[in-house]
Amino acid sequence: MVDPGLVVVDKAPGMTSHDVVARVRRLAGTRKVGHAGTLDPMATGVLVLGVDRATRLLGHLMLTEKAYDATVRLGVSTTTDDAEGEVTASTPASHLQPGLVQTELEELVGDILQVPTAVSAIKVDGKRAYQRVRDGEQVELKARPVTIHELVVHDQRVAGDWLDVDISVRCSSGTYIRAIARDVGAALGVGGHLTALRRTAVGPFDLSAARTLEQLADDFAVLPIAEAARASFASLDLDEDQAGDVRVGRGLDLTLPGDGPHAVFAPDGQFLALYEQRGQQARSVAVFVG
Question: Which residues belong to any copy of the Pseudouridine synthase II N-terminal domain (predicted)?
Fold first, then answer.
């Protein structure tokens, strides 16, 4: 079995995130593998997995911002807001002016309320929304606050009666790119859905760090948990006494240099825990050593 750490996969199209986890479990020789946020089967790109103790980092990594490249097709609406769903409406959109499309997309930048796509993994009364849709139920999800930090339009081109728009998005966790396609299509009165989606980054991990499953099968390696923690969080090196307190879960009488979880390390570089400020003390969020 490999040491605990992170694996950054460049997911191929047609695979579920669970498919990727199952493959990495075999390669790593352990069932203790999880992922930091799913990717739809149609989507490709960065999927961050944790192995062994590093799975405990994943819940915190899921809260970091993400980046995507996508293609929106204006003029066609689908049941899933992407190309895998059934067409529900079709309205010619090739006449739309580039400036108008750009303006409507820019309206989505910032702190917004977004209704997730109905076939999301959000649970409704204990059951995934997508499963309820598959079972023939009508699912209406509540709008949720998300942040779209940046939305860049790269190209717009006519495709028959439709208009294809290539965009890049940098956003908060929980943002649905399919919902962006749906909402801009609705605002323009023609409908819209995604025809391509590629996640280019999850927090500090981007495509330059990602490897395909074929590459991992030839040479499987993880990013050690200490390196993963330093890359993912603000870090703080402790002295021996402080490290001893962390090992038994005590608070630290210090002020952390910033908000959010901090990765704390022993003098020898061992990753010990995630700590965050709580009043006058820094307290543990998760301890990774005994």
Answer: 25-177
